[in-house]
Task: inverse folding
């Protein structure tokens, strides 16, 4: 008689309360359903751009945030020149 090892396959778990949320690890190591939020602020603390994603890693969020800041900055400057 031979023993067989049962391997578990990766499963995608979804939250019943918020199916769009992604399972992410918190600062204390716990897993929770969450979103990844980004914010860009000016030197005086004004939020100039923000973003929300279900991507677990932040690595792809810098470029879109810089683009949003530039677009918002241009939009704000354009308002005063009418």
Result:
């Amino acid at each position: 008689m031979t023993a067989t090892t049962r391997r578990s396959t990766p499963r995608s778990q979804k939250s019943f309360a918020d199916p769009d949320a992604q399972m992410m690890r918190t600062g204390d190591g716990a897993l929770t359903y969450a979103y990844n939020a980004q914010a860009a602020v000016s030197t005086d603390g004004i939020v100039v751009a923000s973003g929300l994603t279900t991507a677990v890693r932040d690595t792809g969020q810098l470029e879109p945030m810089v683009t949003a800041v530039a677009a918002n900055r241009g939009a704000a400057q354009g308002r005063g020149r009418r």
